[in-house]
Amino acid sequence: MGAGVNTLLFSVFNRSLQAAMSGAPRVTNLKAAATYWTSPMAIDFDKVDVDVVWWQARSEFWDILKAGWKFWPLVSVVNYTMIRTVQARNLVGGFAGVLWGIYMSLVAAR
Predict the structure, then answer these.
(1) How far apart are CA 62 and CA 72, in angstroms?
(2) Which band of pLDDT confidence, cut at 50, 70 and 90, is reported for residue 102?
(3) Which DSSP string do the residues of the chain spell out, in sequence order?
(4) Is pLDDT at 81 greater than 90 in this prediction?
């Protein structure tokens, strides 16, 4: 249940943030980035169409959830059958979290 809620909230948040920042320029240096991010209209949530965001989140929900069902049980099985120390389990879990974060970033970038 928690994974489903988390996945849906992730999708809604990412899609609304992408819609709110739709006019963001390509920033090529630190000064330009700081200028853009401190401007009052860097993120404009008035541009967000809630129906479109909700549809996008629902359309990618099952794909993300199924990917999580395939990935995290595998990480747990490896972690608890092959890894002996708590420190190493933390390392494996952290590394798996980084890989999952990369995957989620790629999903959000589609």
Answers:
(1) 15
(2) very high
(3) -HHHHHHHHHHHHHHHHHHHTTTPPPP-SHHHHHHHHTSTTSS-GGG--HHHHHHHHHHHHHHHHHHHHHHHHHHHHHHHHH--SHHHHHHHHHHHHHHHHHHHHHHHH-
(4) yes
User: What angle is formed at CA 103 by the lines to CA 69 and CA 15, rounded to 5 degrees?
Assistant: 95
Phi, psi torsion values for 39, nearest 5 degrees:
-75, 150
User: pTM of the prediction?
Assistant: 0.66
Structure tokens at 44: 């404009």
Q: How many CB atoms are located within 10 Å of the residue 64 CB?
A: 21
